[in-house]
Write a structure and sequence with these properties.
- This protein is mostly beta strands.
- The protein folds into 2 domains: 91 residues, OB fold (Dihydrolipoamide Acetyltransferase, E2P) (Beta Barrel), CATH 2.40.50.140; 83 residues, Nucleic acid-binding proteins (OB fold (Dihydrolipoamide Acetyltransferase, E2P)), CATH 2.40.50.
- It is 14% helix and 38% strand.
- It is built from 4 helices and 10 strands; from the N terminus they run αβββββαβββαββα.
- The strands form 2 sheets. A 5-stranded mixed β-barrel has the order 1-2-3-5-4. A 5-stranded mixed β-barrel has the order 6-7-8-10-9.
- The termini are far apart.
- The relative contact order is 0.14.
């Protein structure tokens, strides 16, 4: 833990930042727990490679396997300030907040009852995940699959299969899409 008395210049700088403020810097290190950013303004951190820190969920709106798919060391970035981490003496940042949310853009163009085509990406015991747009997935509950209700999801569809679906629900806050294959296969929304 960094105390204010340990590094008053750092503490003063971090205390002056406001939620939503844009900060620029350079990706200094990629770690298994997040990404350090050397900020253009403010002092250096006494222990870490940068005063700014981005957790993995704040890197991108879309899923990724490795942080290096989103950023690389030496890359210039603009990030939104989220909070002052008083324990580590760092600025928690969000890279994704500076970019449009693809889910919200998708939701702007979709309505409940609309028919779509999608690719099955995962089969779960309770349903099927279908990619209906680039990086946008929705869930078909097992009760909404087109097969016989007593069949398992694995017996009704295969990963990679292209299927027709109807949007049955859209939750912007939770960023979820509910789908039905059964309604699409019958042709009724």
């Amino acid at each position: 833990m960094i105390e204010p008395s340990d590094n008053p210049e750092l503490w003063d700088f971090l205390s002056s930042l406001r939620n939503g403020e844009l900060l620029t810097g350079t990706i200094a290190a990629i770690e298994p727990f997040g990404v350090f950013v050397a900020l253009d303004s403010g002092p250096d951190h006494p222990s870490f490679p940068g005063v700014g820190f981005i957790t993995y969920p704040e890197l991108s709106w879309t899923p990724f396997d490795e942080a290096s798919e989103v950023v690389h060391i030496g890359q210039r970035v603009s990030c939104e300030f989220l909070q002052f981490d008083t324990w580590n003496g760092e600025a928690r940042l969000s890279l994704r907040a500076t970019r449009p949310d693809p889910f919200q853009l998708f939701a702007d163009g979709i309505a409940v009852g609309q028919e779509l085509r999608g690719r099955v990406t995962k089969i779960l015991p309770f349903g099927v995940i279908v990619e209906v747009a680039d990086g946008i997935e929705g869930l078909i509950h097992v009760s909404e699959l087109a097969g016989t209700p007593c069949q398992s999801p694995q017996a009704m569809v295969r990963p990679g299969e292209d299927i027709g679906v109807v949007v049955t629900g859209l939750d912007r806050q939770r960023r979820t899409v509910s789908l039905s294959e059964r309604r699409a296969s019958k042709g009724s929304p």
